Amino acid sequence: MSNRIQATFDQLKQQNRKALIPFVTAGDPSPELTVALLHTLVAAGADVLELGVPFSDPMADGPTIQRASERALKLGVSLRSVLGLVAEFRQQDATTPVVLMGYGNPIEAMGWELFAQRCSDVGVDGVLTVDFPPEESHDAFEHLQRHNIAPIFLLAPTTTEARIEQVARLARGYVYYVSLKGVTGSGSIDLSAIEQKLPQLRRHIKLPIGVGFGIRDAATAKAVARLCDGVVVGSRIVEEIENSTEATVLDKVGALVKELRAALDQS
């Protein structure tokens, strides 16, 4: 199965570069700014975009991303409107991979078959459903794979060998390694623990591995990039959005992502 995600990682590998994977919540700070924000991320050096689908009870997300979800939900952003925003983004960008990140409830409500079809129609490349473990997701992910959409899974420091093997069989695109126990934006990252864990993951997983949770600055991003194939930055970017005005948000987020990109290119 080849799609934009694989093409992007293949190209980065040839260039000996690491993927920068920023996360933003769709509809935050406003639905009108989301598409411009995505284009800003790409212009600043993002390789893959993770777009959060707002959800009322985001259990893996810390306070920063929870607040972003709440702001977007108050503005009426739904799964359908998120798909509409991806379609709008694709009018000007046909190449940057877009991964939807969220929870099973809104997708279940729409129905996996229709969801997969709509993702295909608008140009979504991957789906990461935080609360859908591999044991329970065969039917759901069959629909995704039929439409050449990558099911993307989270692995954690506590993940067992058996679970790693299972994810290795089902995952496509890349695997997202959660670098610390806890929710997004919490705690500080332990580089030596990541360094110890990655060989175990690579024994089973042939896909690129992205590392996220706890990456808050360029120096940490650079250090993590040396250990893996991609660096995911979410809470720090969402914080920048929260602390900006609508007039300054694109410039501020662009500057932050450029800084992260420069750090990764030195790794």
Q: What does the model show?
A:
With 267 residues, the protein is an alpha/beta fold. The protein has a single domain (4-265), classed as Alpha-Beta Barrel (TIM Barrel), CATH 3.20.20.70. It is built from twelve helices and nine strands. It has helices at 4-14, 31-43, 63-74, 79-90, 104-110, 112-122, 138-146, 161-170, 191-204, 218-225, 235-242, 249-265, and strands spanning 19-25, 49-52, 98-102, 126-129, 150-152, 154-155, 175-178, 209-212, 230-233. Strands 5-4-3-2-1-9-8-7-6 form a nine-stranded parallel β-sheet. α5 (104-110) packs across α6. The radius of gyration is 17 Å and the shape is globular. The protein starts with a helix and ends with a helix. The model has no long low-confidence stretch (mean pLDDT 93).
Shape: globular
Number of helices: 12
* Strand residues, percent: 5-15%
Radius of gyration, CA atoms, in whole angstroms = 17 Å
Count of distinct structural domains? 1
